[in-house]
Specification:
Helices cover about 30% and strands about 25% of the residues. By secondary structure, it is α/β, with parallel strands linked by helices. Strand 5, helix 6 and strand 6 form a beta-alpha-beta unit. The two termini are about 20 Å apart.
Length: about 325
């Protein structure tokens, strides 16, 4: 997938250029409907246009919602959806002050030519959110205003995904996302206590993304496109930490022994197994980890790891 970083780079994209524009935090089924509209246009090239950071972090930092997907994670999700090009625009105070008409003029000037624009039907943009679908049409832009997608009778919105995930409702979060909810992280060195207990774990430095409640989970991990099953602990490890550390995620991968320090893992939350709790001894902890691993193995084997829909979105995801 090609990643562009400036509007002017659209000039080298074969036209007509069909743009899908939005923040797309989470890339949920509503976002997929917008993106799919651009991908399905005949002739030319489709480009997904998104922003980094989330505009709310610049416009109202004290009330910015937690992110569902970091930009790096979002790019991975978009690539799996079959997106070939993404334009990531830096959103700062100067960009926020851009008049809506100027933004449209820049897009039209760069594209050779601009074929169409797909957005949510309530999308607003530009200084003081003056831009709208009506403004785009008044400027002669061919617009596909995509209505909200309904899931179980409610609108698929990033806010709904956040509420479901924060509340531990993985099934609802998965249905809204059209895929298994997941978090992205990089494997870093830990205390290697898991290794001494017989269950080596990958300790993750996480992206700044919303997490489900603390506890133990059956997970499916993607490593360079390779699916791996495992069991994960999310929380503060009360059995081995004397102070109150920050939340940590550590994953034990089944039947896996490679050195993956510095590698990137996408951890998909498949099922909640139990709450995190303190154990009286390391031996008791070892026994519980063994029981958790067995429960996760059985659950994932019985369901083929598809505890949540891996490909139920508007566009298709691999399992």
């Amino acid at each position: 997938m090609e990643t562009l970083r400036a509007i002017e780079e659209l000039a080298r994209v074969p036209g007509p250029v069909h743009l899908a524009i939005g923040v797309f935090d989470g890339v949920h089924v509503g976002h997929q409907a917008v993106i799919g509209t651009a991908l399905r246009q005949a002739g030319g090239s489709a480009v997904v246009v998104t922003f980094d950071p989330h505009p709310a972090r610049v416009l109202r930092p004290d009330r910015a919602p937690p992110r569902l997907t970091s930009t790096r994670h979002k790019l991975k999700v978009l690539e799996r959806l079959g997106v070939g090009r993404v334009l990531v625009l830096a959103f700062d105070d100067a960009f926020a002050a851009t008049e809506a008409e100027d933004f449209v003029h820049r897009l039209r000037s760069a594209c050779r030519p601009l074929g169409s624009v797909a957005v949510g039907d309530d999308w607003t943009f530009g200084y003081r959110a003056r831009g709208s679908v009506a403004l785009l049409r008044s400027m002669g832009v061919s617009v596909h205003a995509v209505p909200e997608v309904q899931v179980d009778g409610a609108s698929a919105r990033s806010t709904a995904v956040r509420e479901a995930l924060a509340g531990g409702d993985l099934t609802r979060a998965g249905r809204l996302l059209g895929r298994r909810p997941a978090v992205l992280g990089t494997v870093v060195a830990g205390r290697q206590l898991g290794r001494t207990l017989g269950f080596p774990t990958a300790n993750l430095r996480l992206e700044d993304e919303l997490l489900p409640p603390d506890g133990v989970y059956a997970v499916r991990v993607m490593l360079d496109g390779r699916p791996l099953d495992g069991v994960a602990n999310l929380g503060r490890r009360p059995s081995v930490e004397t102070a109150a550390p920050a939340r940590q995620l550590e994953v034990h991968l089944f039947d896996f022994h490679d050195d993956i320090y510095g590698r990137e893992l996408e951890v998909g939350w498949c099922a909640f197994l139990r709450s995190e709790r303190r154990f009286p001894s390391l031996e008791a902890l070892r026994g519980q980890i063994a029981a958790d691993a067995a429960a996760a193995r059985a659950l994932l084997a019985a369901t083929g790891a598809d505890v949540l829909p891996a490909g139920s979105g508007v566009l298709s995801f691999p399992p």
